[in-house]
Amino acid sequence: MEVAARLLLHAGDLSSIDFLRPAGEAALVPADSVSWRVFKNPLSLFVGGVAAVIMELAEPRVRAGVWEHTTFRSDPLRRLRRTGLAAMVTVYGARSLAEPMIARVRRMHDMVAGTTLSGEPYRANEPELLNWVYATAAYSFVQAYHTYVQPLSSLERNSYHAEGVPAAVLYGATSAPRSEADLELLFEGTASRLERSDIVFEFLAIMRSGPILPLFLRPVQDLLVRAAIDLTPRWLRAILALNGHGLHAWEREVVRHIGALADRLVLESNPAVQACRRIGLPSDYLYINKSIVPPQCSSARKLTHAHLD
User: Fold this and answer.
1) What would the pLDDT profile of 203-249 be if each residue is shown by its tens digit?
2) Phi/psi at 169 (nearest 5 deg)?
3) CA 285, 11, 15 angle in degrees (round to 5)?
4) Hey, is 134 helix, strand or coil?
5) Can you give the pTM of this predicted structure?
6) In the chain, at which end, N or C, are there fewer CB atoms within 10 A of the end residue's CB?
7) Helix, strand, coil percentages for the chain (3-state, nearest 5)
8) Are the CB atoms for 148 and 255 separated by under 8 Å?
9) Nearest-angstrom CA–CA distance, 50 and 30
10) Which residues contact 211 (CB under 8 A, 6 or more apart)?
11) H helix count then E strand count, the chain
C-alpha cells in the first residue's frame, strides 16, 4: 500500500517544489478545509483524476484541446502527474508558489487554440470551457473521496465547492460552482453539448495499461480505472456508452477498503503532510478524527485569513 501511495502521489518533477517553504505561509485554501482532507488521499486523487478526464473529454472543444495540444496520447503518465502537481500546488502550496504557477498555466493555455472535427473553433482559455474543466475536476475529486474513502455530509460537500472558487477564478473559471446545486445547473446546461467519442475509450485503455503502478499491482490499477468510470454521473455514462464498464458491487467494497487504508497512511513525502508542517501543524493533523475539531483548527484558519487579506 505504501509503495502504491508513493507512486500515485508522485506528481511529476517535485525537485523545484517545496511544500515546506516559506515557513508559516498559508495556502490559497485553509488547512481546516474539506479540500485539504480530500486531496491528501492517493486513491481518491487517482480515481478522481481519471473520472475528471473522462468528463472533460465528453465536451468536443475540450477534447480537441486536450488530445491535440497535450501529451496525453504520447506520454499520458507524465501529463497526469503534471496535472496532479498543479492540483497539489493549488491546494497545499504556499500562496507565493501557487499564484505564479497558476499564472504560468494560463499563459500556456493562451497558446492553445484550434478547430474541432466538426469545424467549431475553440480557445483553451475560454471561460465556458474553463468552467466545465474546473467543475468536472471539482466534482470528481470530492465524489471519489465521498464514495470510496469517507462519506461527506451535504454541508461538507458544499463547503468544498465554495473553498475552491478563489483558485478557480485565478485559473479563469468565471462561473465555478459554489455548491452542489450550482454544479447540477452547470451539468444541465452543458449536457446537450456532450457526445460519445472513441478517444474516451482510447484514454481508458492507456490508463489501464500504462506503467503507473508496479506490475504486481496492475490488477488494482484496472480496478481503479473502472472505479473512475463508476464515479461519472449515470446520465453521462449513457451518453459515452460506458454503462457496463464500471465495478461490480463486491469490487466497490474492495476499492472502499483500499481508500480507507490509504486515508490513514501518513507519508512525510505527501504534500499535504509537508504543508501542515509548513504552517506549524502536526504531520498527522489531517488524519485525526475531524468530527472533533482540534484546537489547531481555529489558529490555522486565522493564519490563512491573515495571509489572504
Assistant:
1) 999 888 887 777 777 889 999 999 999 999 999 999 999 999 999 99
2) -65, -40
3) 90
4) helix
5) 0.89
6) C
7) 65, 5, 35
8) yes
9) 26
10) 77
11) 15, 2
